[in-house]
């Protein structure tokens, strides 16, 4: 009690109110509590600040629950119920909800009920006076009981009053009015006319309350009715779907004709039994029962098919045929509205390449093939579906951003994206996610020699893609240095930004070394399936290619890293060229995110497997664009200039993970130790330093 008095005293300060810091408020509460405790040390126990805050929190929680139960009990108060009945109902509700009794009633009634946030209806009028029922000598009190008035020594009636709960009308006026009624007097008391007006107003309020209760009962009945008719609507929907499928056929068997008659009969039965799907409407004080009945009749006049459609989902006629016609005229007509360079900018690729992708996915997946739906109407065309997927991936926009132009809903666009990435991976994954074949290796070795790194197969690094909708339980696993959940993509890229290797799915709590140990980037070398590579550096022969990497990667023979602290001019020149050439993979990441902004922005996808499919499909299309536009690059090398006959060309399969047992375990271990040899790494690095100094030292 003392705690809540102190808290209410300072929290309801007329000057500051709640606009004060919690520390200052609780210091004042603590001082006032200690002052009370010093005055009554036997009754009030000692409490620290944490104990006071915990006790305050528990009391507020209990009082909030009690106030909610009380207001609910008062809301369903019916005629003939007193406030004691309402309080009993509130206690019963509180016990049912909290599994315990409400033991803070004294604190609530004396202190907390005076605050506005915990006010409860008490059956009084706006002036704090109890309602008085009209009668001869009966007065209806707030507790629901009736008491007869008493007489004094002179025989006059005396109205029992309580100073804490005054009546709505002064006692003298009630006394005079009841005496006149008992003695049969015909006089009118001017003051008592005010009581008659009050009684009429009270009756009107009671009638409004009864109408509200009646309306709430009707709403409950309509809810039950709606649930029952919902099941009937589900049956109707299933029957209609089967019936439409059968009616779309041109040739029917006798069994199918009998099924059509049966389904039609069942559908009509459901239609006759289901009179209406009633919409639950909220009645306001300004709306009469006649208006409510009018609204209900208006809803009942809606057609059955319309009510079925409104029950399940709101349908919008988008005129998807117009969307296809507009798209075709804008980009694919013989004389399109937008020229080729605008098509290249908006679709991220040339028109022939896009049409090649559309043709491939349409031929492989019936989902993209045009055809009528159950109602016999043509669906979205393959151009609309593929354009929607490309636009969302290219611009990183929401799925409903293409609704106005392509005329398709958000759910349809999301489905088209999922199907599109699956088809792209299926149709083009083997070709554009392959390991380098003989011709590719010859070209890479030639370009590496020209750039000062003989034997270089590309550069390797990792990229992070933020996962905005990562589940809370996985946040710790997927959170990296930035504190945000991301997923790592490991990639190997060459000079023309072709991505030869992509490994996606590891959480960002791992670093590049942990990702490397999980990655299948060197599986073909370990298993002896890699192409044989021979080259010379500074007069020394090597038979294993390498990647340029940053400083975090281990000192293996397959990696060449820069020199952090360069002192000699040779080392500075080597670090300059190594860091410049290693930026190929960084440029590839930048171009990939620029072409497909979907993987640059935080991902809103919930499934990490779908994220992996999306990024793999973007990499495949990126490689297709590189192949299609490679001849436009400034430093382009003609692949026909390289002779790859001496290289084994039977290595054009994609780099996939295999659980099959290798042929020889000793060969696997020997290849692994040879690739991770530190002495070979140091020797190759020294030879490359000398080679670059001899090649570029005089120029720099």
Q: Structural class of the secondary elements?
A: alpha+beta
The helix content is: 40-55%
Number of domains: 5
- Determine the strand fraction and express it as a percent band: 5-15%
Q: Which spans have pLDDT < 50 for at least 5 consecutive residues?
A: 124-154, 156-177, 182-195, 274-287, 642-659
Distance between the termini: 86 Å
Round the mean pLDDT to the nearest integer and report it. Answer: 76
Total beta strands: 11
Note the total helix count. 24
Largest sheet entry: 5 strands, mixed
Shape: flat
User: Looking across the biggest beta sheet, what order are the strands in?
Assistant: 7-6-5-10-11
How big is the Rg? 42 Å
Write the layout of secondary structure elements.
Layout: H1 2-11, H2 22-39, H3 49-75, H4 83-98, H5 105-110, E1 138-140, E2 146-148, E3 150-151, E4 157-158, H6 171-182, H7 192-247, H8 254-273, H9 289-300, H10 304-312, H11 320-332, H12 340-347, H13 351-364, H14 382-395, H15 403-406, H16 410-432, H17 438-450, E5 456-466, H18 475-478, E6 486-493, E7 499-507, H19 512-518, H20 523-526, E8 535-537, E9 540-542, E10 546-548, E11 559-560, H21 569-595, H22 608-629, H23 665-675, H24 678-696
Parallel strand pairs: 5-10, 10-11
Antiparallel strand pairs: 1-2, 3-4, 5-6, 6-7, 8-9
Helix pairs in contact: 1-2, 3-4, 7-8, 13-16, 14-16, 16-22, 21-24
